[in-house]
Amino acid sequence: MARWRDSLEKRFAEWRRLEYEVEDTLAGRRVLRVAGPRTPRLTTPVSVAVKQAELNAVEEKFQAGLACFCLGELSGEERRAFLRLWHERLESGATVVLADRRGEGCETPAQLRDLFTPHAKALNVQVGPTFWWVRYERA
Predict the structure, then answer these.
(1) Is residue 107 within 8 Å of 72, Cβ to Cβ?
(2) What whole-number distance in Å separates Cα of residue 43 and Cα of residue 20?
(3) Quick one: 2-138 is in which CATH superfamily?
(4) pTM for the structure as a whole
(5) Domain residue ranges of the chain, discontinuous segments joined by +
(6) CA 105 to each of CA 25, 52, 115: distance values in angstroms, whole numbers, following the listed order
């Protein structure tokens, strides 16, 4: 039981670190947040929050974007389609943050760089034991 609790505490600590970094990165910007089907709570202030399935209905452009747990359960082509749709709602130069659980196609820094490089300037990739997150400026 102690090992399971220790593992859970480590994942929680990893998520809290990610959450603090996201708050600092997006502070003072008009943020579009997109949540996947199982997104944990975040304290980051946002301007508009939608579920992944509702993204198509957003017509405005934003200075920043935050997408959590939107890519992990998608196939490679579905990921690329989501990213195209999402980036259309972000201004050029917008600050972008995505986070998810490590999973197929999104496990290593190299896989994440390959996925996000076409959309990014100043790409920063972080991969922890449980989660990954990327920050960049929309190209």
Answers:
(1) no
(2) 9
(3) Vaccinia Virus protein VP39 (3.40.50.150)
(4) 0.86
(5) 2-138
(6) 25, 19, 9
Closest CA to 55 of 25, 81, 92: 81
**E strands in 20-119:** 31-35, 48-51, 62-68, 90-101
The rounded distance, in Å, linking the Cα atoms of 130 and 12 is 10
> What is the chain's pLDDT, residue by residue, as a tens digit (139 residues)?
566 656 778 877 887 777 777 777 888 899 999 988 766 666 667 789 899 999 999 999 999 999 988 998 899 999 999 999 999 999 999 999 999 999 888 999 999 999 999 999 999 999 988 889 999 999 9
